[in-house]
Amino acid sequence: MATFQLLFPLLVSCVVASASPPRHLPPCQVVQTDVFCSDLSLRSAPLDLPDGVQMLDLSQNQVQNLTQETLAFHTSFRHLNLNSNKIHFIQPGLFRDMTDLRVLDLSRNHLNVFALSKTSIGPLTAVESLDLSSNGLYTGMSDYFLADSPSLASLSLNSNSITKIAKNTFNGSSLLQKISLHNNVILEIEDGAFDFLRNLTELDLSKNSINCIIDFNLYHLRMLNLSKNSMERFQSASHSHAYKLLYLDLSENKMLYFPYLPRHNVLEYLDVSRNCLQTVDISENPDKRIPVIVTHLKYLDMSYNHLQSIPESFFCFMGSLEVLNVSNNCIGSFSISNEGLLSNVRIINLSYNSLQSLTFGENTLQTLEKLFLQGNDLTTLDPGVFQRLPSIRYLQLQQNSVEICTSDPDQEEPESAGCVSFSSVPNLHFLYLSENNLHTLPANAFANTPLKLLDLSLNPGLVMDQEALSGLELSLVHLLLRENNISSLNTDLSLLKSLKHVDLSTNQLTSIPMWNEESSIESLNLQNNNLVTLESSTMLALERSLKTLYMGSNPLNCCSNLGFLHMVRRSAVVVPDIKTVTCVHEAFLEPVNIEQLEEGMCQVSGTPVYVIIILVLLAVLITLGLLVKFCHSKKRKRNRGFRA
Ligand SMILES: *[C@@H]1O[C@H](CO)[C@@H](O)[C@H](O)[C@H]1NC(C)=O
Ligand SMILES: *[C@@H]1O[C@H](CO)[C@@H](O)[C@H](O)[C@H]1NC(C)=O
Ligand SMILES: *[C@@H]1O[C@H](CO)[C@@H](O)[C@H](O)[C@H]1NC(C)=O
Ligand SMILES: *[C@@H]1O[C@H](CO)[C@@H](O)[C@H](O)[C@H]1NC(C)=O
Ligand SMILES: *[C@@H]1O[C@H](CO)[C@@H](O)[C@H](O)[C@H]1NC(C)=O
Ligand SMILES: *[C@@H]1O[C@H](CO)[C@@H](O)[C@H](O)[C@H]1NC(C)=O
Ligand SMILES: *[C@@H]1O[C@H](CO)[C@@H](O)[C@H](O)[C@H]1NC(C)=O
């Protein structure tokens, strides 16, 4: 009897071995009790699996029938990965005795074929995590897999074709904590389908076709993702029950009104971006204009909607808000004047609206660090608006039409109207002012503001005062002056001791700014200017610190820039646009790429010719001199002769 028991598996092994093509398969990798057999064209697990194997990765193989044989009669698995096979049949009851099996991945198979046979796979005794994604399953088919899954905590049914969640869909898996139904075509959820799942905390219904939720009553849920549906309404069932919801993602829907949230909520994250909000009211009915109470909310995204205004009162019960994104709307005016509002906000994104007015009252927004205002219509601002923001570090104001106030460093408050002052903003490090149609940059424009980055690009015709950057000597690291039509810089950049990155591309510069040995410039962009000659002492001074140099599209003269060419060849400076760095050489009709330039090419037509000419001239002069002397002495001799 004992012999028979030993023989039996061997016999089966032989049968299985002869059934599959006699091909030598590359071996699986075995690491202790884990076996990795991914992508080996296998139809079943290898027969020599070690005893007590706990993890088997059979993903990306050719398994069709999942039976005891295919798993080589092992039942000790804790983790089975069968993703991306061709499984269309599972032996009923296969997992009953796998009392250690916790993780089962059956994604990317053909389990819809199995479901058509209307057979159940039997109990998933201990399985806690089951992945059935991408199996072509449609409504009702999940029943054959879930009917008896008492330990199931996490289930993925992503990327199937389910249209309806029935009342009893999850009846056999009442301990579920997390369900993912992303990318199906769910149109309907029957009343009570999730109600009895007491432990459910995460529900992902993103990318479906749900168009409204009117009785949201999953009090225990922490995460609800409804992104990419056709939601027009979201309404909580009870205004008085306490909800545990922390994350609600309603982005990319068709919401016309702000979601109707329960009064007792602890919501921290709310995304309503890319919807059709025209107002922050919760319904069109004026009687229902109750305040939005989200005292725990930290993140609110309402970008890409059609909001024209946001009344200050909307923020009354948002004391915890840290990030507010209302960009890409049609907001014309934004104002926070009440001291208590948004007292924890760090980031406000108001970019791409039609802001003409922006008002922050005294002592408001004391924690604001980043303010994004690009792409608006700001022209006149309360001149001291930014001085009142003690924590502001990062300010994006590009694509507006602001003018910068002339500031008198001795005066505390700038007085002139119709401009914005950037002096004495105590923590401002990053300032973007490109595309503002700036005409002038007055002296001391940034005095007492510790800017590290200043972007003044795309303000063609900008006239910078000689002292415009004074005050930034020790702080400024990045300076961007791209596309400003500058023909000569009248500001001495060598005074900016911390400057490392300078962009002067697309201007009309005929000479490079002067730098001396003390410069610490690391990257310099001089692309697309009018440079003919590069001042060699400056180039030598730069060479010490320079790492990257952009030089393309300049009418350089080949032979007067030999110093530069040497620098490119022998130093560690990288010239990323070297393919477009050309120079003009009299011997060639077309500009020559500097990589093709050879040392010899300039010695013929350069200095030596000059020297030869001088030598010839000298020789002629000497000869002439000698001739004159000779004639003279002959004459004298003759004269003497006459006398004699
Ligand atoms: C899979 O199992 C079914 C039913 O047991 C059987 O009819 C079929 O021939 C098997 N297919 C393969 C490829 O083993
Ligand atoms: C689902 O479970 C509930 C109670 O847990 C029971 O009343 C109902 O009949 C079950 N439905 C099915 C189809 O098993
Ligand atoms: C499920 O929730 C119940 C209470 O509703 C709790 O006692 C139990 O520990 C939870 N189970 C798990 C696995 O979290
Ligand atoms: C919701 O689902 C979308 C689409 O799958 C995803 O991009 C987004 O990150 C999810 N939201 C949250 C809060 O996890
Ligand atoms: C909204 O702005 C915040 C902060 O600036 C950012 O993290 C988020 O990605 C933005 N939302 C969208 C939809 O881009
Ligand atoms: C501001 O929000 C927009 C979306 O409306 C986003 O694309 C942008 O990245 C955000 N800005 C920052 C700096 O986060
Ligand atoms: C750029 O400057 C030149 C003179 O240096 C001027 O003729 C031209 O109109 C300017 N272009 C722009 C766009 O300001």
UniProtKB/TrEMBL annotation:
InterPro entries: Leu-rich_rpt, Leu-rich_rpt_typical-subtyp, LRR_dom_sf, SLRP. Residues 1-19 form the signal peptide. Keywords: Leucine-rich repeat, Membrane, Repeat, Signal, Transmembrane, Transmembrane helix. The chain crosses the membrane at residues 609-630. It comes from the Eukaryota. This is Transforming growth factor beta activator LRRC32-like.
